[in-house]
Design brief:
This protein is α+β, with helices and mostly antiparallel strands. It has one domain (about 10-80). The protein has one helix at about 40-50, and strands at about 20-25, 55-65, 70-80. The chain has a 3-stranded antiparallel beta sheet with strand order 1-3-2, covered by helices on one side. A hairpin with a 6-residue loop joins strand 2 (about 55-65) and strand 3 (about 70-80). Residues about 5-10 have low confidence and may be disordered.
Length: about 80
């Protein structure tokens, strides 16, 4: 997983700040319910934990649909705090 991909992850994830803000786009499955890429969210959280950050806050917002067969998009914005 490339955490510097600005369309999926904030570029701030590569810097050593006290707080880091990341945004992950969750894509709704075409058939059924739930997100088709929860592993990306899990990987982002675990990647920050390995760097010494803990998840402080997470919010979500509906990003709309990407077309007839694309499914909905949900933006998950996460704030991580450096563990001192």
């Amino acid at each position: 997983m490339d955490f510097s991909d600005s369309s999926t992850f904030s570029t701030a994830s590569g810097k050593d700040y006290h707080y880091v803000v990341l945004q992950v786009t969750l894509k709704e499955k075409f058939l059924g319910t739930g997100s088709g890429n929860l592993t990306e969210l899990e990987e982002a959280i675990n990647h920050q934990a390995q760097k010494g950050y803990r998840l402080h806050t997470i919010t979500t917002s509906n990003g709309g649909s990407k077309g007839l067969m694309g499914g909905d998009r949900i933006q998950a914005t996460m704030v991580f705090e450096k563990v001192i």
